[in-house]
Design a protein that fits this description.
Order of helices and strands: EHEHEEEHEEEHH
Shape: globular
Radius of gyration: 16 Å
Number of helices: 5
Structural class: alpha+beta
Distance between the termini: 24 Å
Length: 170
């Protein structure tokens, strides 16, 4: 079976007129991608409130403080620097959408961690990688909810993944 083409969408907070738009787009994505997604995690260490955030600053500051008081989970002799969020819990999904952009690393994984659908790196870079069928569902939901889809997202060209035997080669 041929793999779907994947579209890369840039989602840094600076790409939006208000940071809260990025949060709403991520929250909508998590709602749509629920059946595709298995794990939603972030690095809970050194969370910083983004300057771009205007609304909800006090609430997110409180979330950051609460996470800072949680003990880091142990996996055998190692400390896991990942905090999982339950997508079936509406409050956890809201918390993740605000905290993802505060983290050094936040990721939305497919089942079995085979595919990354969304990632924030160093609080400054944020990217979606969406297979065509998921992108179509996501864009349809955004339109139905009245959210404007960023123009550069509409213009993004999907790319077919390399065949498995060519992966890893330049």
């Amino acid at each position: 079976m041929a793999e779907e083409a994947v579209t890369t969408l840039r989602a840094e907070l600076g790409n939006f007129a208000r940071a809260e738009v990025a949060f709403a787009l991520l929250e909508t994505f998590l709602d749509v991608a629920g059946p595709w997604v298995e794990e939603v995690v972030l690095d809970p260490r050194q969370l910083l409130l983004p300057d771009e955030m205007t609304d909800d600053r006090a609430v997110v500051r409180q979330l950051i403080d609460e996470l800072g008081r949680e003990p880091l989970p142990k996996t055998g002799p190692f400390t896991a620097y990942e905090r999982w969020f339950d997508l079936t819990d509406e409050q956890a999904r809201w918390d993740y959408t605000r905290l993802a952009y505060c983290s050094r690393s936040a990721t939305v994984w497919s089942r079995g961690r085979r595919t990354t659908y969304f990632e924030v790196v160093d609080r400054s870079r944020a990217t979606y990688w969406l297979p065509d069928s998921l992108k179509e569902q996501y864009f349809d939901r955004l339109a139905a909810n009245g959210w404007a889809i960023p123009g550069d997202w509409l213009a993004a060209v999907p790319k077919k993944p390399k065949p498995w035997w060519k992966r890893g080669r330049l």
